[in-house]
Write a structure and sequence with these properties.
The chain is 84% helix and 0% strand. It contains 9 helices and no strands. The longest helix is centred in the N-terminal third of the chain and has 18 residues, at 21-38. It is elongated and about 55 Å long.
Length: 178
């Protein structure tokens, strides 16, 4: 069964990259079911997150929310802070998309604490976690905090050569300076 689950995960990932969203969703759903049956927690977490991404791609943030909440709960039982940070950040993104800023904030705070507390955190992962929190701070009217976060994100995006991230951060900083 493990080979079947791995194959489904590969198929789902490829389908999403090829913008075959319904196919990706179908493969992720089957991977979730089989991962549960096989009691493969890591594969289940990956499949829940993949299915959550598919639901978001299809405009179903409410459906994605339930999947990410379960994935976060399972991540908390594991010992991988990077996996938890990544998953809880995406849960924050879903809350933000749903306009649930008060629920998104603790997700972003936790993700950043986990990333900052782990020396193995890739700069791009940290930058991508800082970005939505900076947006949240802007929307909350916390300009100084938003400026500091955008400045840090810009530095990290420059470090890893992500021009779009540098451009967005610079634009947001310029808007906040007005």
């Amino acid at each position: 069964m493990a080979d079947t689950i791995d194959k489904l995960i590969e198929e789902a990932t490829r389908a999403r990259l090829e913008n075959r969203l319904a196919d990706a969703r179908r493969s992720w759903m089957e991977a979730v079911t089989l991962s549960r049956e096989a009691k493969r927690t890591g594969a289940l977490i990956q499949s829940l997150k993949g299915l959550g991404e598919s639901e978001r791609d299809l405009g179903n943030d409410a459906g994605a929310l339930v999947l990410y909440e379960e994935a976060v709960a399972l991540c908390r039982l594991e010992t991988d802070p990077q996996m938890l940070a990544h998953t809880v950040r995406h849960l924050g993104d879903v809350h933000s998309n749903l306009g649930q800023w008060e629920l998104a904030r603790p997700c972003y705070e936790e993700a950043l604490a986990l990333y900052r507390g782990d020396a193995s955190t890739a700069p791009l992962d940290l930058a991508n976690a800082i970005r939505p929190f900076a947006i949240l701070k802007e929307q909350a009217g916390e300009k100084e905090a938003a400026r500091a976060l955008w400045g840090e994100a810009r530095t990290l995006y420059e470090l890893v050569g992500v021009a779009a991230g540098v451009a967005e951060s610079s634009s947001r900083l310029a808007a906040l300076a007005k």
